[in-house]
Amino acid sequence: MKNKKIISIVSILMIAFFMMAIVGCGNKEAAKEEKDSSEHAAASFNPEDSGALQIAVSRPGSLNPLFNGNESLTQMYHLVYEGLVTFNENREIEPKLAKEWEWDERGQSITFTLRPNVTWHDGESFKPEDVVFTINAMKNKVSNLDYPFVHADIINQIADARKVSDHQVQVSFSRPFSGGLEALVFPILPQHLFEGAGSSLLASDDFPIIGTGRYQIVEHDTSRAFKLSHYTNYWGESPYIKEIVVSVVPDREAAMSMFESGEIDIVEPLSIDWTKHTDRDEVTGKSFLSNKYEFIGVNFTNEWMNRKELRQAIAYAIDREQILQQLYFNHGIVTDTPVFPHSWLSTSDELTYSFNQETARQMIQDLEMPEETVFTLLTNEDNQLRVATAHVIAEQLNEAGLVVEVEKASWEDLQDRIEERNYDLVLAGWHLSFLQDFSFAFHSTQRDAGNFVQYQNDDMDEILENIFGAANQNQKREEWGRFQRLFIEEMPYISLFYKNHAILHRETLKGDLEPNAFNWFNGIENAYVVKVETED
Fold first, then answer.
1. pTM
2. Domain segments of the chain: what residues?
3. Which of 205, 204, 209 is nearest to 219 (CA)?
4. Overall average pLDDT of the 267-274 stretch
5. Between the chain's N and C termini, which has fewer beta carbons within 10 Å?
């Protein structure tokens, strides 16, 4: 009887296991059939029948795009407002409200020819006066308001803007300025809504959101939502998506919660490991190179760090590819200089300082440093990813024969120690401007400001000044080539990598949306939302 009981139990367990396997296989088959059905529906879906796009923005402080420092609102405003020009993914300038332009011989002014037949969302014609008004407003020539313009550092380079004809406007700079086009990507505002007494609206909660973009705002409550619809008189290509609903949320975390619950279609990931979301069938990630550049700053007041042979040895000793793979999920691009890797200004994709432990070890030995020499690698303790990176770097440098100890500090203490020159190496990062100008970091006149490493080199000063004042694109690229060659030789920073960023979207969003660091909605005219049929 006992054996029969055991056999019965085993039989029951086997049957149960078999039934679970059948159910499991059934679930997998059902999931596969559902996915195949969804893909078939998407393949046969007519983009002209696109559904509405659901997105979210963090609660804005100001609705004026020239005041706004809220990144999510800035991205939404790319749908509503336009500048004279814009950036593509390679940081090249492309036409927007200006269809063409011409520099003067000195590189000190640009004459723009504006697109014809462009209208504001209220039906008024776009005119040169709108460009002049926007620039004058940013230069505080419109009223006595103290505007917190997010483009203030750039606008200071503009001396004057004037109407040349009904379709032309000229922008002049205080001196030859090769970054003039890059400086003019800011949104243009409609003069007719703000001139005279209306200028007070610039800083008002009742700011009228009227642009020239592909979408117009038809409803908005800054505490709850915006509703955008396709502007039918838009000068460019019509989008498939005719309506965009924008939820206003407290922060990025709230936006992610809405994305995970299926309430919105697009979201910015909260961390570098966004692939944990894209592992799900219903989510896709589109990555792009960000403006976030990681580097090791050296203290040039330190006798040893002032030796470029040591800086070069450090560069050889660090396996940057390994760091990217192990800590950053390979979301980045290793670079020897701070010049944006995909930029038309970047002269080479080849790395000079590829990982070479033997070369690094030999260079360090040749320096004949005292055996007791110990260096500190400082970083901010609130950035756990950077702290982990610092420990890997220290380990790699130790293997090359350089004794390095990691020290963590609060952001305030780190800044104090940098100011006091109380460090040897510092692992840090810059969120760089789209207008690439490294005078703030490497020009000798900036040693009490952005040039915190105390780097001084007459050739570097000359090159940076030549870049700023280059009279044409060829001269500009030539000087940027000189900058990169000198940087690689001198190593004022130990360059690590640029980090990638990404936008996550639901699989129901199809088409050629091509986000980049400047505009997450680049290519929105080619995207469409597949309507999902639900059963009652």
1. 0.89
2. 43-77+213-265+508-536, 81-211, 289-500
3. 209
4. 95
5. C
